[in-house]
Design a protein that fits this description.
Blueprint lengths: L7 H14 L5 H12 L8 H20 L4 H17 L9 H7 L6 H14 L15 H14 L3 H12 L3 H21 L1
Helix pairs in contact: 1-3, 2-4, 3-4, 4-6, 6-7, 7-8, 7-9, 8-9
Length: 192
Amino acid sequence: KLELFKSDGDLVDILNYIRTEFSKMKRGDFLSFYKVLRDSHAQKVGGIVTGTFVKLISEIDAWSMAKPDDELRTLALASVTSLAGAILKSGAIPEPMREVMEKNLAHPDQRVRGNTILALDELSPESYSFKEMFSLPFNRAAADALIAEGRRDYTEEIHRFLKDFIKSDDPFFVASGLYVLSYLYGFHRLRD
């Protein structure tokens, strides 16, 4: 059963299966694999798993860019990107993954952009600053930038942007502001 993998070898097999089949998968199939990997609580791994994951994200990025308006391709890229922090060890981000992820900080889809911000922050928090993204016109990516920077330190600048989000006439910004505020409160409460 997919949910019962126990070793790096099993994880590599799952990632390789996704690599060979993702272009043929339906939305439900892809989301099933994503959910299992997200919920697996796999130990952060290295070696062959890292290499396989780097190939997967690079291949899905190229597949997505071939038809950037295809919803399934964009969902696949956003989902795989969000797994990076869960599967890979913190520290140096391997090439060509760094190149793919840095490029996707400007992706037109805010799920891809937001997941990229959070993944880069989890993998290499001291390497990136996302402050310039606080004022993006996209609530999701701006909110994820606030989370990434806010995990480091809850500054006056973050507080000011969150107040602006919550006072916004746009209900999506209000919802994002409340989510970020709640997330950062819980994060720092556990840390302090």
